[in-house]
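Quick one, C-alpha cells below:
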C-alpha cells in the first residue's frame, strides 16, 4: 500500500507541473485566438482586405486549446459525471464504479493516443492551406493531450484503488468480531 501511495504522489507531482503549464498554454491559445479573430474582422470589414492565414491559425489554436484543456478539467473532474446515479449508492459501490469507469476511459485514451500519434505522423506529409507549416503542427495536439489525459487517469485510478483499500480496511477494523461481541 505504501508503494502505491508513493507512486501516486510522484505521478501527482508530475501531473501538477504538466497541467499547470497546459492551463496557461490553453489560456494563451484562447487569448491569441481572440486577438487574431478581432484583427481579421478589422482587416476584413474596415480595411476591405482579408488576411488569408487568420482563420486557419485560429482554428489550429482552438484545436490546441481543446487538447490542452482536456487533461486539466479531467483532473479536476469538471466534466460530465454520473452524480445522479452515484449519489444514491454506497461510497464503496460508488468507488468500484469509478474504478471501472477510469479503467474503461484509460483503455479508450490509450487507443486514441495510438491512433492520434499515427494521424499526427501522417500530417508531416501535407502542408497547411494558408500557413507555411505542415498539418502535423495542428495534429500533434491530439497525442499530446491524450498522453497527458492518460497520466491523469492513471493517477485517478490509483487514487481510487487507495481510497477503496482504505474504505475496506476501515470497514474491517470497525466491524466487531464474535470474540468482542
Amino acid at each position: 500500500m505504501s508503494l502505491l501511495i508513493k507512486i501516486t504522489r510522484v505521478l501527482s507531482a508530475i501531473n501538477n507541473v504538466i497541467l499547470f503549464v497546459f492551463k496557461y498554454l490553453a489560456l494563451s491559445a484562447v487569448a491569441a485566438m481572440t486577438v487574431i479573430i478581432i484583427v481579421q474582422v478589422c482587416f476584413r470589414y474596415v480595411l476591405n482586405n482579408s488576411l488569408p492565414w487568420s482563420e486557419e491559425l485560429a482554428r489550429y489554436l482552438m484545436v490546441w486549446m481543446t487538447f490542452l484543456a482536456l487533461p486539466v478539467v479531467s483532473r479536476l473532474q469538471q466534466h460530465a459525471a454520473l452524480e445522479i446515479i452515484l449519489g444514491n449508492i454506497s461510497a464503496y459501490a460508488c468507488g468500484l464504479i469509478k474504478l471501472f469507469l477510469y479503467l474503461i476511459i484509460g483503455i479508450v485514451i490509450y487507443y486514441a493516443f495510438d491512433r492520434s500519434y499515427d494521424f499526427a505522423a501522417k500530417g508531416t506529409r501535407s502542408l497547411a492551406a494558408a500557413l507555411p507549416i505542415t498539418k502535423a503542427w495542428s495534429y500533434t495536439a491530439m497525442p499530446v493531450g491524450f498522453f497527458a489525459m492518460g497520466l491523469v487517469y492513471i493517477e485517478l485510478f490509483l487514487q481510487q484503488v487507495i481510497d477503496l483499500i482504505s474504505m475496506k480496511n476501515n470497514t474491517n477494523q470497525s466491524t466487531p468480531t464474535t470474540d468482542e461481541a
